[in-house]
Design brief:
The complex is a heterodimer of chains A (about 130) and B (about 290). With about 130 residues, chain A is mostly helical. Chain A contains five helices and two strands, in the order αααββαα. Chain A is elongated, with a radius of gyration of 19 Å. Classes of the chains: A mainly alpha (about 130), B alpha/beta (about 290). Chain B: Keywords: ATP-binding, Nucleotide-binding.
Chain lengths: ~130, ~290
């Protein structure tokens, strides 16, 4: 995990994002226990309440579940939820940015489509 | 829930032309970690020492659960003050000092003390005055993390500590706080190292509390915005600017305010300002 303490995002959001990423990539497997708030706060020197706030966001989003007296675990189906949500955000997060940047670079819609096509062709060649 | 209230506190010294503390008002709530900041000579140590009744104010009061702390044993047994002065007999061995403190507090955490002695690699058979500055601080740190008090005031706890020992202090502070929450007030000049550990910011300046807010509140409104000067200017128009720098047409504006409610120009970069930087700007300019 890594935190960018200069980012305009509040730290508890960054904690949530980092944990989500770890679930998404499979570093934290479904059904497995995640590190405790104390472990995370100790390692990154973050106030435990901040870490807890970030973890609770994931509990609210159905990605983590607390088991009384045992700790916090990745919920079954968490990865699927993240993928679905990221697919929904793909347009806003990537496509709009791409269009924005391409306008600044005077690249037309056709130029972009050609580039995307080229990207996929290269990908196929490699595999 | 216990609470400490500092009310209209003032401290004047006889031959000084200005009072050190003028009118200090704030509360310390239970189970929070406060960062107490201020320039050298701002009065941080004096303020802490008055909360712990080591020192009498010229005016005002310190209340613990509504009762004045002055000569109030019940209150003072819940307030621990770690300071730069020597409270222990210098010629005593560290082990003797530890036994002495242990005898004073019923629930003193001997297990944590043993763990810390090991982690810090402290030689407890050494006499206090034979230890380096750093290790003398370590002895005090260990005691302050092990005493069973609700309010722990740490005045420059990491003075003279090397980087490794400062890390040991920070992670043990977090660990003991998670296991057994209580209030810490930490004054330090190394703000970068504790800005994520503290939950509250207190800034002492010109004899008053100039800033008092939760870390979320403070950091959710301290930004540095940079980019081409005219884009930055039009974006930040109307915010309370603390400072600005310009390199040719490239401009950076530092402010303490909400982000403006308008679209961010693509050419403009927004960064959160680090607490250390923010406090330096405020102390430097004296404006807020």
């Amino acid at each position: 995990m890594q935190f960018d303490f200069n980012s305009p995002e509040p730290i508890f959001i960054q904690v949530a994002t980092q944990l989500e990423d770890a679930i998404f990539t499979g570093a934290f497997q479904e059904g497995a226990q995640v590190p405790s708030t104390t472990e995370i706060s100790k390692q990154f020197k973050i106030n435990p309440a901040t870490v807890l706030k970030g973890m609770n966001m994931l509990v609210d989003n159905d990605l983590l579940e607390k088991r009384r007296g045992r700790g916090t675990f990745v919920k079954q189906g968490a990865q699927e939820i993240i993928i679905k949500r990221r697919q929904e955000h793909f347009y806003n997060d990537y496509i709009l940015n791409l269009i924005n940047e391409s306008k600044k670079l005077h690249l037309s819609e056709d130029d972009i489509l050609t580039l995307v096509k080229r990207g996929y062709d290269n990908e196929q060649d490699r595999s | 829930m216990s609470k400490i209230e500092v009310k209209h506190l003032a401290k004047r010294f006889k031959f000084a032309n200005k009072p050190l503390l003028n009118e200090v008002n704030f509360n310390l709530e239970e189970n929070e970690i406060y960062g107490l900041f201020g320039e050298n000579g701002a009065g941080k140590s004096t303020l802490m020492s008055m909360i712990a009744d080591y020192n009498r104010p010229s005016a005002g009061q310190v209340l613990f659960d509504g009762q004045e702390v002055h000569e109030n044993d019940e209150a003072l047994s819940e307030i621990y003050f770690m300071n730069q002065d020597d409270m222990y007999t210098k010629k005593d061995k560290v082990s003797q000092i530890f036994s002495f403190v242990e005898s004073m507090y019923q629930d003193y955490d001997v297990d944590l003390q043993a763990k810390l002695v090991k982690e810090f690699k402290l030689d407890i058979n050494q006499k206090l005055n034979k230890l380096s500055t750093g290790y003398q601080s370590i002895v005090k740190i260990i005691i302050s993390l092990c005493v069973p008090c609700k309010f722990i005031l740490l005045d420059e706890p990491t003075l003279g500590l090397d980087a490794r020992n400062r890390e040991i202090f920070q992670s043990n502070l977090i660990e003991t706080y998670s296991e057994n929450p209580r209030t810490f007030v930490i004054s330090t000049h190394i703000i970068d190292e504790i800005d994520r550990i503290i939950s509250h910011v207190l800034l002492l300046q010109y004899g008053i509390i100039k800033m008092n807010g939760s870390i979320d509140e403070v950091s959710s409104k301290s930004y540095s915005v940079s980019g081409p000067a005219e884009d930055v200017n039009s974006y930040v128009d109307g915010v309370k600017v603390l400072d600005e720098e310009q390199l040719g047409r490239y401009k950076t504006v530092h402010f303490m305010d909400q982000l403006p409610d308008r679209e961010v120009p693509a050419s403009v970069d927004i960064e959160k300002m680090k607490l250390q930087k923010l406090l330096v700007y405020i102390m430097d300019r004296g404006k807020l």
